[in-house]
Specification:
The protein is an all-alpha fold. Helices cover about 80% and strands about 0% of the residues.
Length: about 100
Protein backbone atom coordinates (compact mmCIF):
# COMPACT_ATOMS: atom_id res chain seq x y z
CA UNK A 1 0.00 0.00 0.00
CA UNK A 2 2.95 2.31 0.56
CA UNK A 3 3.58 2.45 -3.21
CA UNK A 4 -0.07 3.31 -3.86
CA UNK A 5 0.04 6.21 -1.39
CA UNK A 6 3.26 7.53 -2.92
CA UNK A 7 1.76 7.30 -6.41
CA UNK A 8 -1.39 9.09 -5.24
CA UNK A 9 0.70 11.92 -3.75
CA UNK A 10 2.77 12.16 -6.92
CA UNK A 11 -0.31 12.29 -9.14
CA UNK A 12 -2.02 14.90 -6.95
CA UNK A 13 1.10 17.08 -7.06
CA UNK A 14 1.38 16.65 -10.83
CA UNK A 15 -2.27 17.55 -11.37
CA UNK A 16 -2.04 20.62 -9.12
CA UNK A 17 0.99 22.03 -10.96
CA UNK A 18 0.68 24.43 -13.90
CA UNK A 19 0.70 22.86 -17.34
CA UNK A 20 4.09 23.22 -19.05
CA UNK A 21 4.27 25.64 -21.98
CA UNK A 22 6.57 25.59 -24.97
CA UNK A 23 8.22 28.75 -26.18
CA UNK A 24 6.95 30.48 -29.35
CA UNK A 25 10.38 29.91 -30.92
CA UNK A 26 9.91 26.17 -30.49
CA UNK A 27 6.51 26.35 -32.20
CA UNK A 28 8.05 28.28 -35.11
CA UNK A 29 10.82 25.68 -35.50
CA UNK A 30 8.31 22.84 -35.50
CA UNK A 31 6.12 24.58 -38.08
CA UNK A 32 9.13 25.15 -40.35
CA UNK A 33 10.00 21.45 -40.14
CA UNK A 34 6.49 20.15 -40.89
CA UNK A 35 5.52 22.71 -43.56
CA UNK A 36 5.08 21.11 -46.98
CA UNK A 37 8.22 21.49 -49.04
CA UNK A 38 8.07 23.59 -52.20
CA UNK A 39 9.48 22.39 -55.48
CA UNK A 40 12.77 23.98 -56.50
CA UNK A 41 13.08 25.72 -59.89
CA UNK A 42 15.11 22.77 -61.19
CA UNK A 43 12.38 20.42 -59.99
CA UNK A 44 9.78 22.49 -61.82
CA UNK A 45 11.82 22.24 -65.04
CA UNK A 46 12.07 18.46 -64.67
CA UNK A 47 8.31 18.16 -64.14
CA UNK A 48 7.62 20.42 -67.14
CA UNK A 49 9.93 18.34 -69.35
CA UNK A 50 8.23 15.17 -68.16
CA UNK A 51 4.81 16.59 -69.06
CA UNK A 52 5.97 17.63 -72.53
CA UNK A 53 7.63 14.26 -73.24
CA UNK A 54 4.62 12.33 -71.90
CA UNK A 55 2.20 14.39 -74.01
CA UNK A 56 4.33 13.93 -77.13
CA UNK A 57 4.62 10.18 -76.53
CA UNK A 58 0.86 9.91 -75.96
CA UNK A 59 0.03 11.76 -79.17
CA UNK A 60 2.53 9.67 -81.14
CA UNK A 61 1.30 6.37 -79.70
CA UNK A 62 -2.36 7.24 -80.29
CA UNK A 63 -1.90 8.57 -83.84
CA UNK A 64 -3.60 5.60 -85.50
CA UNK A 65 -6.61 5.46 -83.16
CA UNK A 66 -9.96 6.91 -84.19
CA UNK A 67 -10.76 10.30 -82.65
CA UNK A 68 -13.85 8.89 -80.92
CA UNK A 69 -11.74 6.34 -79.04
CA UNK A 70 -9.31 9.04 -77.90
CA UNK A 71 -12.18 11.23 -76.74
CA UNK A 72 -13.81 8.31 -74.88
CA UNK A 73 -10.51 7.48 -73.18
CA UNK A 74 -10.15 11.11 -72.06
CA UNK A 75 -13.75 11.34 -70.83
CA UNK A 76 -13.32 8.16 -68.78
CA UNK A 77 -9.69 8.54 -67.74
CA UNK A 78 -9.65 12.15 -66.54
CA UNK A 79 -12.33 11.75 -63.83
CA UNK A 80 -10.73 8.50 -62.65
CA UNK A 81 -7.31 10.18 -62.42
CA UNK A 82 -8.79 13.19 -60.61
CA UNK A 83 -10.60 10.94 -58.14
CA UNK A 84 -7.48 8.88 -57.49
CA UNK A 85 -5.48 12.06 -56.91
CA UNK A 86 -8.04 13.44 -54.47
CA UNK A 87 -8.14 10.10 -52.64
CA UNK A 88 -4.35 10.03 -52.39
CA UNK A 89 -4.22 13.60 -51.05
CA UNK A 90 -6.86 12.73 -48.46
CA UNK A 91 -4.90 9.67 -47.36
CA UNK A 92 -1.72 11.74 -47.10
CA UNK A 93 -3.50 14.44 -45.09
CA UNK A 94 -4.86 11.78 -42.75
CA UNK A 95 -1.39 10.39 -42.13
CA UNK A 96 -0.02 13.85 -41.36
CA UNK A 97 -2.80 14.41 -38.83
CA UNK A 98 -1.92 11.19 -36.97
Amino acid sequence: MHDDDAMDRFLRAAMAADAPQLSPAFDARVMRRVRPRRLTPAGRVVIALYVVVAAAATVWLMRDLPTGSILAAAVIGVPIAAGAGAYGRRLAAGRRAD
